[in-house]
Amino acid sequence: MRSPYVWGIIYFFMGCLFVYFAIQQNTRTGQWDFFTIALMALAAYDFMVSYRYFTFKKRVKRKNKE
């Protein structure tokens, strides 16, 4: 199993990709449609999961230190 740090990086990268796709969709259509909002929601979810993995890594590191 990979470390939480690696999973955090993967989810952060996926969130960045979804933000990029949402920006491209918004500039193509010029308005906020359902697909753009759905992409931004997926990006927000990926950033949240990434943050949780990074904080989990800190907790594991602190626990192992004790």
Mean pLDDT: 89
* Estimated share of beta-strand residues: under 5%
The sequence of SSEs as H and E is HH
The number of helical elements comes to 2
Alpha carbon gap, first and last residue: 23 Å
Main sheet specs: none
Q: Which regions have little confidence, pLDDT < 50, spanning 5+ residues?
A: none
Roughly what percent helix? over 70%
Task: Say how many strands there are.
Answer: 0
Given helix and strand content, the structural type is mainly alpha
Shape: rod-shaped
Task: Please render the helix and strand layout as text.
Elements: H1 4-29, H2 34-65
Description:
The chain crosses the membrane at residues 5-23, 35-54. Keywords: Membrane, Transmembrane, Transmembrane helix. This is DUF4305 domain-containing protein. It holds the Pfam family DUF4305. The protein is mainly α. It has one domain. It is 88% helix and 0% strand. The protein has helices spanning 4-29, 34-65. Helix 1 (4-29) runs antiparallel to helix 2 (34-65).
